[in-house]
Amino acid sequence: MKYLLLIALALLALWWWRSLARRGTRRSQAPKQPPAPPPPQDMIACRHCGVHLPGADAIAGGEGSYCSAAHRQAAEGQ
Length: 78
What we know:
Blueprint: H1 2-28, E1 43-45, E2 52-54, E3 59-60, E4 65-66, H2 69-76
Antiparallel strand pairs: 1-2, 3-4
């Protein structure tokens, strides 16, 4: 019984020592840099209502760029 208690204490001490060692390596690692923000986008005004929106979201028409298909149809008379 005495040997079982000694083995259990040794395993507990080994587990505790390893958890401290793992915690120490985490702290020594350099903190991760946040990802770089995306580059700014060109803003385009809707030819019908004047609302500014990113160029990637604009709908191209024959007379310019629009914020929606309904505004493109209204402005171009389709």
